[in-house]
Each structure stands twice: as C-alpha cells, then as structure tokens.
Amino acid sequence: MSEITIKDIIKPENIVYEKTSLMTDKSLSYCPGCGHGTTHRLVMEVLEELGQENDTIGVAPVGCSVLAYEFMNIDMQEAAHGRAPAVATAIKRLWPDKIVFTYQGDGDLAAIGTAETIHACNRGEKIVIVFINNGIYGMTGGQMAPTTLPGMKTSTSPYGRDVNSMGNPLKITELIAQLPGTYYVSRQAVHTPSAVRKAKKAIKKAFQNQLDDKPGLSFVEVVSNCNSGWKMEPVASNVWMEENMFPYYELGDIKLEGNLL
Amino acid sequence: MMKQSKTNKMGELRLMKGNEAFAEAAIRAGVDGYFGYPITPQSEVIEYLMAEKPHERTGMVVLQAESEVASINMLYGGGGSGKKVMTSSSSPGISLMQEGLSYMAGGEVPCVVANVVRGGPGLGDIQPAQSDYFQSVKGGGHGDYRLPVLAPSSVQEMSDFVPIAYELAFRYRTPVLIISDGLIGQMMEKVELFDQMPRLTDEEINELYPWATNGKPKGKKRRVITSLDLDPYKLEKHNFKLQSKYKTIEAEEVRCEIIECEDADYIIIAYGSSARISQKAIQLAREEGLKVGLLRPITLWPFPKKPINELVEKGVKGILSVEMSAGQMVEDVKLAVRERTKVEHFGRYGGVIHSPEEVLEALKNQIIGD
Amino acid sequence: MTEEIIIAGFGGQGVLSMGKIIAYSGIMQNQEVSWFPAYGPEMRGGTANVTVILSDERISSPTLTAYDTAIILNQQSMDKFESTVKPGGILIYDPNGISKHPTRTDINIYTIEGARIAAEMGNTKIFNMVVLGGYLEVKPLVKLDNVIKGLKKSLHERYHKLIPLNEDAINMGMRNVKKTA
Ligand SMILES: Cc1ncc(C[n+]2csc(CCOP(=O)(O)OP(=O)(O)O)c2C)c(N)n1
Ligand code: SF4
Ligand SMILES: [Mg+2]
C-alpha cells in the first residue's frame, strides 16, 4: 500500500468542517484554550447561517475581546469600556431593520457598564448581548471582576475574594432576566463539544428573535475560562470551571419568550 | 467672514427660547436621532423634542438616555453608522461626555453636542457662565484632539448654527460643539426658522459616507469604527492624519464678527452672551466719545487669530477679553497678540452676569487708564 | 426706538406671559425683541421677573441694570427695581399689597389697580392684561391690534375664545391707569 500524504487527505470531498467566511484570516489574539475564540466563531457561524453578514453591525467591548472587530468579518464598532449597549441602542434605533449585537466581558458589562446594560435591557432594546463571564479581568492581567467567586484569588484579591469587604459575585444575568424588557436569557458554556452545540443553539435563538422582531432583548451569557488570569493550564481551568463556576452560575435557559423559567 | 449655510428661509418668524429654537432647528436640519439626559438650564431641548413628536414629522428618533455617559455613546453608535445624531447638556453632563468625545475624535465619528454652560466647578449653579471654554477648545478629554466649537450669541444663531455644525461634523468627520449658556438658552427672541430639510435616506448615507458601519455592503470590504491601535507607529500615523485635518479646519473654518472696529482705539473680544453685553458696553463707551470696537469669535476653535492680528497691526492700543469666567479665552487672545499690545481679562463668574456698565468700567480701569 | 422694560412680581401673576405678549406684539410690528426671565433659584420664594426689550435695531445686551420702564407687582420687586428706572423713565405699579410706595421724584410714576379691576371683572387671571393695558396707555409703543395679534400667537388655539375677554381687560387697564401726584 502506497503511503498516504496530507495532500491526499485535504480534498473537498473529505471536508467535515470549514471555517466560516465571517471570521477573518487573522490569527486570534486569545490565549490557547480561551473561550473567547470559540464564542466568536459561534456568533459568526450563526450570522452566516442566518444569512445576515451584510445586515449586521457588531459592537466590540474593552477587554480581551477589544479586537473582536479584527476577527469578525462584518461591520463593527469598538465601544468605550462598558458602553457597548448604549452604542448598540442607537444603531438599532436608527437602523431598525439591521441586526445589532454587543459582545462584552464581565468587567465591561457588569462593572463599569452596569447602568448601560440594565437600561438597554430595561428599555427592551431589540438587540443581542453576548456576555463572556470568566470571573476576572483578563485583559488587564487578572484583577477581580464583579463575577469573581467568593474566595477566588486574583491580583486585586490576592488572599481570595472576601465577600464581606468586596461584595458577592454579581449574578447580572439573573438580575436582567427580572426585567420585562428582556425576551430571552440563557447561560451557556463552550468548553466541550456538547456545550458548544448548546451554546450555538442559544446564540442562534437570540439572533432569530431579533430577526423576528420579538419584543425585547436577547441575552446569552457564556461562562468561560480564563486560564491565564486564573493561572491554570487550559484543561485544568476547564475542570476548575465545571467544579466551581457552574455550581454558582448554573447553565441553561433562564427566560424564554419573555417568561422566567 | 461669516460663511452662509445652505438653508432656505420662508420668513417663518417665531418668538422662542434659545433651547427651543435649537431643538426645532434639529428637527428641521434633518437630524436622525437625539439622545439626552435632563439638566438645567437646557432641559427644554429634550422636552420640546418629546412634545413635538419629531418621529411623526420627520422620522427623527428621540430617546431619553440613562445618563450623559450613555447619551454620548449612543452618539458614537449612531454617528458611526452615518446618521446625524445630537445631544445637549450643561456643564456637569458635558464633563461626563468627555470620554465619549475623545473616542469619537479618535474614531472620527461626526455628531453635534450642545453645551448650555452653567456656573462651576462641580455642581456649581444653574446660572449662565462661560467657564467651560478650556474644556471646549483645548480638547476636553484625553489625547491630542480638537473639536470645532461654535458660539451662538442669539436665539437666531441657536437655530442657524445647527445645520452649519452638521456641515462641519460630516465634512471633517468630527464631533462639533455648540456652546452657549443659560442666558441664550433661556431667553426668547425673534427667530426666523429655516425650512425643513429632508433627512438623508439610507441609500444616500451609503453613497455619501462609505465609512459608515451599517451592514457590510455586498462584495465590498467591511467597515470598522475604532479609536484603538496598539501599534504606536500606526497610532502616530493616525494622529498625523488627525492633526492635518485640524490644520485644514484652522485654515478654512474660522468665523468671527467684527463690530465697529474700523476706527477703534480699543477692542473688546467677547463671544456668546458676553458679546451681547459687551456690544451694549461699546455703545455706552461711544456715547462718552471712546472709540471702542468688538470682535466676536463665532468659532472658539479654530480661534480667530488672524483677524485679531490684523487689528493689532492696525495699532489698537489695548484689548479687553470679556468672558463669564476667571480668564480662559484671554490666554488665546494673548497667544494671538504676542505682547504687541496690552491684553487684560474682565468677567464675572460662578453664574454672575456682568453688566454693560461693569464692562465699560473695566475697560476704562484696566485698558484705557488715565 | 428702543424700549427696555422690567416686569417683576410673584410667580402666577402672569409676569412672564405679559412679557411674552409685549415681545410678540413687537414682532408683529417688525421690531427686534428679547425676553429674558430670571430662572432657577432666583425664582424661589415665588418671585418672577423678566427683561423685555423692543427695538428698531439689533438688540445688544438682553440683561440690563437700568430700564426705561418698570412694571412692578409686589413689594419685593418694588424694593429691588425702583432704583433701576432711568431718570425720566416710567414706573407702573399695582398699589394692592404695596406698603412702601415709590418715592423717586425724577421718574414718572403711575398706578394701575389691576387686582381690584380683574376681581370686579370676575376673573383674576386677566390681572396681567389689565396691567398691560395700563402700560399701553402710558407708553403706546405697540399698537393695540398688534397686541391682539401677539396674544393670538402666544396663546394656544384652545384659549383663543378668551381673547375678547383679554381685550376688555386691556381696555379697562387703559382707562384706569393713574399718574401719581
Ligand atoms: C475607562 C477605562 N477604565 C479601565 C480600563 C482598563 N480595562 C481594560 S479591559 C478591563 C477589564 C476587562 O475585563 P472584562 O470585561 O471581564 O473582559 P475580559 O478581558 O475578561 O474578557 C479594564 C479594567 C479601560 N480601558 N477604560
Ligand atoms: S487573558 Fe483570559 S480571557 Fe484573555 S485571552 Fe487569555 S484566557 Fe482569554
Ligand atoms: Mg472577564
């Protein structure tokens, strides 16, 4: 039997997975194993599947995903720290037939941008918010986030988060789910193939809601690792996430069609 | 020197507050979206807009935001998508907007922001002041940038300057400030309104502003609005581009009004409401036989250095910078004059309006002497 | 011609709207006008005042320290503004509720019993129109039909039926204004 080379394998008939054209060819700036990259891809796949590449405006945050616009091959704006929901509000109000989304980390969405987040949700802006909760400020080197777990060590909680002086982790997703302005609220993860499939379904539902002009905002949280910030190997960080983050931030839909579950 | 805007007027006269004329002008100028947060002395702007239902008149969107921080970032989003967007506020609110303005200067996002200035610092009071001059003309937020600043001195100009501001904003892709104060915002005068201008259609926006992010055009490259570039050399290059744009604005867009300066021995330089008060002061001065003229900067940035220079070269004997501040514009006057003649500042501040008599008194004491 | 007026009294006496009607009347006869109210904390304690200027020329300062005419409707305003009338100028006031009457001899002082007349006419709301009538009699700078046109402009359509009543009030004011000795 003659030897099989890589050239024999890379053939159109053998393709089982293709990178969506809505991701640019630029290599991702994220740490290997980080959930940001996977989530970017899911958002772009969904937009491609829904045929919305020419009708979507995305808003990038300040955080590790500040450069999301380098990777997402659609019209994008880069917002100031925490202000993406305000930026998206105006775009959607002024271009009501377009699809508008924000992509934000926990510091961006639940600390500096809390007011913008809550008010965009409360007004029921017909946008999608994709929220990456990694319990830490990844971009700036691992400081405590509003979502940092009790006792969790970060560079600004070096002895562990003391909830008495530093407050409790903020379940912003449960909080905004209480608002009549949110239509769909879900919490997902992207650390295993099955989690990725579920997360993609949730993200697709969120965008489908906007396409269908459903009354209110669709919000998908992705609980994600930050192996650099958590100072762990990627695999270990996923195990730690399952054991520590998921019990606190339970996965699954929280609000469907405007009704709390 | 005053350039004409492209508006038509059918002689529609109204008695309006400055704030109301500004709001009505926004509708008529074809503004697509107003986003604002109430603050005295300019809340009439959003109140007027809400009452007028501009959505029914022109399709204009009006939204009360949760804060000035949100308002200015709404302008970032809307302006970045090619729409004519606007906000208005007063001093404390404008301070909150500085981050957003800096991002818009960096991302080259057009918009119009009105500041109806009140006394400061801090919460200050709600009376007229001109103490936000530094903040307006020197940049205001972080980074190397300037914003064109228009200073109306009448209710008529509160209306007329709206379309001019949009021309500048889109020609140069920059936020433009319109700075007035509680006096001009709250007073009523006769205004001749300009005729309704159509809002741009989405197709027109796409044709005119290929940079606008409103959905990647089929078969073309996608667009990005950002102020970020982590490569210092690239960011420096971007800054070169901004600086050359500012040079062009300085060369092309200076506006000022010169009143009774032909024979003047002394000049008052004043903008906005101080210019109105100073105009009365020069009347009083001339009644006493003193030859005093008024130079009124209409653009505070770019500052009318050249016209000032011309007056200095004609040999004026002294200049009084009259502003309702502790002395801010006077620094720019001094830069233009370069010690060739005497320059002094006079003004009441903290919300106190100086009277024409006080201005004349100061002119006599500080400039004319005995 | 330039006429610089201060109107001052309690909030609710129609001080600002009287000023507005004068300003609108000026517009109706092609004059330049300005109307600048005291606003904010200055209005606390219930006082209100507005500076109105009518002129054939471009108006310079919309705020002033001396006036051709002062229309004074309460004691606080009398205390504050009597001294600001230019020599030879006019002070018109409603003696109702005034305890310290004006004492200047270098100005022309008139009284108009606005509150009493309005009450007699059965509508205290037209008080400011009676006073306006007094002013128009003393200083007929704006023509009555321009005032009526101005009224129409400044009143919402649903109040236009009240215009004849306002006109009566102005006429009553014109007939009842008195020069003090
Ligand atoms: C006004 C302002 N304050 C602070 C910062 C610094 N900063 C940049 S990103 C960031 C936190 C980002 O954390 P998060 O939103 O959780 O994103 P992650 O990097 O974890 O994805 C901070 C504090 C900034 N850019 N702007
Ligand atoms: S620092 Fe954390 S969040 Fe940022 S890219 Fe690395 S792993 Fe991801
Ligand atoms: Mg984070």
Determine the CATH superfamily of the largest domain in chain B: Thiamin diphosphate (ThDP)-binding fold, Pyr/PP domains
The CATH class of chain C, by name, is Alpha Beta
Bulk shape of chain B: globular
Percent of residues of chain B in helical segments? 40-55%
**CATH topology label of the largest domain in chain B:** Rossmann fold
Which keywords apply here?
heterotrimer; B: 370 residues; alpha/beta; Rossmann fold; 2 domains; seven-stranded mixed sheet; five-stranded mixed sheet; 15 helices; 42% helix; C: 181 residues; Pyruvate-ferredoxin Oxidoreductase, domain 3; binds thiamine diphosphate; binds magnesium ion
Q: What this model shows, in words?
A:
The complex is a heterotrimer of chains A (261), B (370) and C (181). By secondary structure, chain A is α/β, with parallel strands linked by helices. Chain A has eleven helices and ten strands. Chain B has 15 helices and 15 strands. The two termini of chain B are 35 Å apart. A seven-stranded mixed beta sheet of chain C has the order 2-3-1-4-5-6-7, sandwiched between helices. The longest helix of chain C is centred in the first third of the chain and has 14 residues. Chain C is globular and about 40 Å long. Chain C starts with a strand and ends with a strand. The interface between A and B is large, with 32 and 39 residues. Strand 8 of chain B pairs antiparallel with strand 2 of chain C. Bound molecules: thiamine diphosphate (TPP), iron/sulfur cluster and magnesium ion (MG). The site of thiamine diphosphate has 18 residues of chain A, from helix 5 and strand 5.
